[in-house]
Amino acid sequence: MAEVKVENVSVRFGRNLVLKEASFQVADGELCVIVGPSGCGKTVLLRTVAGLTRPLEGNIYFDGKLVNDVAPSHRDVAMCFQTYALYPYMTVRQNWEFPLRAVNLAKEEIQQRVAKVMELTHMEPLMNRYPRELSGGQQQRVALGRALVRRPRVFLLDEPFGNLDAKLRVELRATVKRLQMDLGITTLHVTHDQVEAQAMGDKIVVMAMGTVQQVGTPEEIYEQPANLFVAGFFGTPRMNFIPCELKRDGGRLFFVHPAFTLPVPPHQVAAVEAGISDTGLILGIRPENVSISASPQPDAIPVEVYVLEPQSNELIVDLAFGDMILKSRADRDELGFEPRLNQKVYARFASDFIHVFDRESQLRIA
Amino acid sequence: MSQEAIVSQRAGPATAVEAAAGLRDIWWRRILFVPTIGLLILLAIVPLIFSLGVSLFNYSLGSRAIWVGLRNYINLFTDPQFWLATRITVQFTVVAVSIEVVLGILFGFVMNQRFTGMSVIRLIVFLPMMLAPFVVGLFWRFMFDQTFGIVDYLLTQLGLPAIPWLIHPFWARVAVVIVDVWQWTPFVTLLVLAGLGTVPTDLLEAATLDRASNWMKFRQIYWPYLRFPLLLALLFRSIDTLKMFDLPFILTGGGPGNYTSTLSILGYRQQIMFFNVGMAAAISWVVVIIINIVTNILVRLITPAKAEQVHTGL
Hints:
The complex is a heterodimer. In chain A, 26% of the residues lie in helices and 34% in strands.
């Protein structure tokens, strides 16, 4: 068990700087999810923590001790590879026993640990198969299992559920989270799935194009996204972005868009005034904070129903106004009316949940 | 039109003219094989059958061949010189090939590492393999010379006794093995390197993070990928050494006594010195049979058990 600290780590592959000054800290026993679109450097970051990739500069600490020059085999980390990296000429059981035999664990202990992981991953009927006799999802479970049989200082999981079907993914997500909590082993979990990141992480590190965009708890990331990328990456459907100008009228501030004028919510006035530049701003509002009604409301925008996407108990409504589409998400029961296609309705933004970003720097203002 | 449609249209001959053209085409293709097959029959199969026939005759060059049946073989098997040559040939093969394989694996692992200057080192290591055995034999004969040779000079400088390399029955055989190892270890190294190149990096990384010992890594990760190249190396080297002729012929001339005379040298003597073509043919057939047996055993020994088979791409 260890506290992991990544400090200004940069990695270069040939001419490309694939990781730029990444810094964050994971507390002992914490589950930290590194999330971002493919090619953003998350796997490289994980490999650097494992010691498989040498950083160009920057430091990595385990429990405050610099491990830059500690060989990967001495860092005591267990990694679940995205490529699985299963030993092809060993059965599932042998694959799992391998890391335990490597440190000369007692036979009973080995059997016990393997049995436990077998149960967690539902591999009972397949224990004597070779990797090539398994499907992609089964191989992935073997790869995950080979990490889970160990009791390392740090777990490094690289897309451990990427190849599983939706049902098993959700189940294993909970299993791994619970197991990690019980074992109390610091875990770095890489994924491109924002739902998985939200569901599993004690802490989330959001990455894009080789740089860390934001580090925070799932709530912080969701409620106070640091920039447009983070705001757009989390949430389904993603946050609505509406380019606006700011106008002062009689001592009050307004967001002005060709289709509407809205007062700046009182709690945001100070921040907006302080942060504004002349380049204009972008107003962000999540679909669940857009409510629609059949009759006019104060500060509501007249829109037209463009597409209806029913979910199980929710309804996602695409609303057209001007040349833009605004997405709204609501419980079907709480809607109060049945929207029809092309119906004229009124959209209202929950003023407590309006996000304001600078259009040029893309950073959060309020 | 899609590609498939074009292909299916072209598949069958549409007219009698085209059908005739197709037939001509097939015959033309067959005719093109004639020179190759003809050469093969002329240069490989005819001599093989001819030599098998000759081995059943008492036939000296210039005289009439007399049918003797298996007499040549019976004479051979009752001749102590033949048994000495067989023993020496097998000794050379077992000792030299074993050393070559062990050293080849060692060098392979060393040279698999990447650092600047490795390409130069590789070139130097592979150099012996590229030299003609005749040349190799000549300059090693110089180096092993008891009076002028550098080997004994270095030994005496180190305070060790000089060794009568090429004139002592034991040391002469050691000398032949040393030179064969010197020349052919690079070949094994080359194949080992090829095998090492097929080991997936992520497996090695996984084993490293799993804290596998070096022995575990060798046995569990590298070995399955080295089996096949090593089988090839063993086969090539065994076949080559069982037929060994040029090296002892130049180094020692088969002496002292007959203590470095391989089966091939024995056959050569029967043919060239005693003009006993029938006997020479019999000896070469014995060599062929020995090689066949050894090859079969090796293939069976080293073909991976089904469980351990991996696709190496080789």
